[in-house]
Structure formats: structure tokens, C-alpha cells
Specification:
The protein is built from 14 helices and 14 strands. By secondary structure, it is of the alpha/beta class. The chain has one domain: UDP-N-acetylmuramoyl-L-alanine:D-glutamate ligase.
Length: about 375
């Protein structure tokens, strides 16, 4: 029987036992790592301590355009320096929600970079290289991310095994109910990692299928052929795992184009139908698409959509999608249905952008009661 309570309150009831369920739940996330500098672009400077920021991306674009053929001095103000990368942000959020996290990625060579020090006290981390660096200029209507990716070349199968031998890696995979391999776009050696996980690790796993989550992470700069090959690899993992592909709206368009789909509209109905079609073509367990103001997902039982707690004045936007992914996947880990998992996802993201920190289950329950 369908509950008469609003969806957020249904989820609050479902989360009452979540802390106990997640306490001994082990998850594995990899393989990137970034130091994120969150910046505001200065529009006007009034004094040494007071300025007006550029609130919209068009302000920034106009300033650059007006300087074409000349030159310009653009001032940035650092709001915070924090751990970054799709993997660390998602893993940190999963840990805050209660899962026991193992993280493999480039968090520092020899010693963990200070921005990951707190994370390293709550998660088991295996660092394989220096982190990349991202300068994220945030506006009210989006963000521009400028990355320095040289160290990401070290994220490859050979270097991974130097730090986490095969026997240990198989054990970590075996003990994890949930695995996430994210940021395919920036990790140019991920194809080889996918191949080895599929051919070396997966055949050694026993028991129920584990959830395996993928986030391509803005694949526009990769060729259509590269994206198509990655999607083929992801589909093949369904033999050994319950494969979940997470996409923001723009990424869903890019994947759809590669698969030969027409560009859908942006309505809830259009995006939900698009998620369903992507899932059918990829033949995987679940596809989830999360625009800014709602989220949609499709699995073998059908497709559904949930509105999000959108705010036009977020404290932070960098990492919002990773928090959605962590919340949605936590719902799947807990065995919640598609709609409830989407609700956990949008609430986790909604809490994060308002508070600039990852919620615990108790925070999430309180926030859901306000929706």
C-alpha cells in the first residue's frame, strides 16, 4: 500500500534505523584527488576588506569580453581551501552519513596533503600520488573550474598496485557492499583500470552483486569514441555488479548524443523519460540524472522523479553533485526504493549547499522535516 505521508516524511521514517544499518557497512571509492580553492571574482573593490562579487557568470564573461585585444586584472578572493575531486567529496559525504569508507586515490605523495588530513582520520586511505589542484570560481548561477591535472597521470593500474597489491585490493572489493569509480574524464588511464577490475578483480568476487557506481564527470572534452568505449565498459560490469550510472543534466545530454538519442527537453517528464531510455540502451541496473532543481532515475521497475530543495543563494556549489550521488547511493545501500533514494540524494545535496558541510543522518532527518 502506498503511504499517504509526503515523501520526505516517508524517508525520515526509513532513516530511523539507518545509522545502525550503516555502522558496519563498508564502501570503496576511487580514484582521484584534488585540492579545491573556492573563489569569488571581484566586481568592485570598496576597501581593503569590502568588495562586491560577480554574482552571475555573464558578469564574468562580459568582463573578459571587454578586455579582448587589451588586457585585464581579475581579482579573486579565496573563500576556502578544501578537499576536492569527485571521489574524495563523495567518499567524505558517504562517511558522514555513516558508512565505513576506504579511499584509493591521489591524496599526497609520501604524506597526505593537509586538506585531506581530517578525512584520513575517518576513512582508510591509500594515497598513490600528489593531488591535482582546482580553482573553482563560484557564481549564483554556476561555477567555473580551472584544473591542474599533471599528477593525475599517476592514477593508473600499475601505480595503483604498487601501493595496494592485488591480493589486498581483492580483499577491499570483497568486503565492500558499494564501490564507486568516478571522474573518468580527468583520469586518462581509467580505461586500463576498468579493464583490470573487470578481468582481474571481478571474477574473484563471490556472494550477492555489489553496487558499482560510475560518474563520468563532464565528458565533453573527451571524444565521442572515447565516451562510447567507456559506456561499453560500464555496461559489461553488469555481469558482476549492480551498475549505477550517475549523470548531471548536461552529462545526460552528452551520453545521449553518443548513444544516438535526440536532445530531450528540460522538463521533469522529459528528463525522466531520458533516464529510462539511457538505462534501456546501456542495459544496466540504474541510471540517475540530477539537474539543479530535481532528480530522475530509472531501473528495472520503471522511472520516477523527485523535486529538490533548490536555493538560489547557495553557500557552496562545488561538490553538490557528489553529495547528491552519496545520498542517492546511501538510499540504495539501505534498500530504499527509487523515489526514496532520490529524496535522500536531493536532501543531502540541499543540506550541503546551504551549510557548506556534509550532513549526518540526524542532520538529514531534521532537514527532511522542513521540506
Amino acid at each position: 500500500m502506498t503511504s499517504l505521508r509526503p515523501l520526505p516524511l516517508q524517508v525520515v521514517a526509513s532513516l530511523k534505523t539507518a545509522a545502525a544499518q550503516l555502522e558496519n557497512n563498508k564502501v570503496l571509492v576511487g580514484f582521484d584527488g584534488f585540492v579545491d580553492n573556492i573563489l569569488h571574482a571581484v566586481k568592485t573593490r570598496e576597501s581593503a576588506s569590502k568588495y562586491t562579487r560577480m554574482e552571475r557568470m555573464t558578469d564574468f564573461a562580459e568582463r573578459i569580453s571587454s578586455a579582448a585585444g587589451l588586457s585585464a586584472n581579475m581579482e579573486m578572493v579565496v573563500q576556502m581551501q578544501k578537499l576536492g575531486g569527485n571521489g574524495p567529496i563523495m567518499a567524505n559525504a558517504l562517511g558522514a552519513l555513516g558508512s565505513a569508507v576506504t579511499y584509493i586515490g591521489n591524496l599526497g605523495q609520501g604524506t597526505v596533503h593537509p586538506v585531506f588530513s581530517e578525512f584520513a582520520t575517518t576513512a582508510k586511505v591509500h594515497s598513490i600520488a600528489e593531488p591535482g589542484v582546482t580553482d573553482a570560481i563560484e557564481f549564483d548561477d554556476g561555477k567555473l573550474m580551472f584544473g591542474k591535472h599533471e599528477s593525475l597521470r599517476e592514477v593508473n593500474w600499475s601505480n595503483l598496485l604498487k601501493h595496494v597489491p592485488e591480493k589486498q585490493l581483492v580483499k577491499i572489493f570483497s568486503q565492500s557492499s558499494f564501490i564507486a569509480m568516478v571522474n573518468w574524464t580527468m583520469l586518462t588511464q581509467m580505461k586500463g583500470i576498468f579493464q583490470k577490475v573487470a578481468s582481474v578483480i571481478a571474477p574473484q568476487l563471490t556472494g550477492p552483486k555489489r553496487i558499482l557506481f560510475f560518474d563520468l564527470a563532464d565528458p565533453e572534452k573527451r571524444s565521442a569514441e572515447d565516451i562510447r568505449e567507456a559506456l561499453k565498459q560500464i555496461s559489461k560490469f553488469e555481469k558482476h555488479f549492480r551498475v549505477v550510472l550517475g549523470l548531471n543534466l548536461r552529462e545526460s545530454y552528452q551520453v545521449g548524443e553518443v548513444l544516438g538519442l535526440e536532445h530531450p527537453g528540460e522538463s521533469q517528464v522529459d528528463v525522466t523519460s531520458h533516464a529510462l531510455r539511457l538505462r534501456e540502451l546501456l542495459d544496466i541496473d540504474t541510471v540517475v540524472v540530477h539537474p539543479t532543481q530535481f532528480a530522475a532515475a530509472a531501473n528495472e521497475h520503471g522511472a520516477t522523479c523527485v523535486e529538490g530543495p533548490y536555493t538560489p543563494k547557495p553557500k557552496i556549489t562545488t561538490g553538490a553533485g557528489d553529495h547528491f550521488n552519496a545520498g542517492f547511493c546511501t538510499g540504495l545501500i539501505l534498500g530504499l526504493d527509487l523515489a526514496q533514494s532520490l529524496q535522500v540524494g536531493v536532501a543531502t545535496s540541499g543540506y550541503y549547499v546551504r551549510n557548506a558541510k556534509s550532513p549526518k543522518i540526524s542532520d538529514l532527518s531534521k532537514f527532511l522535516k522542513t521540506l
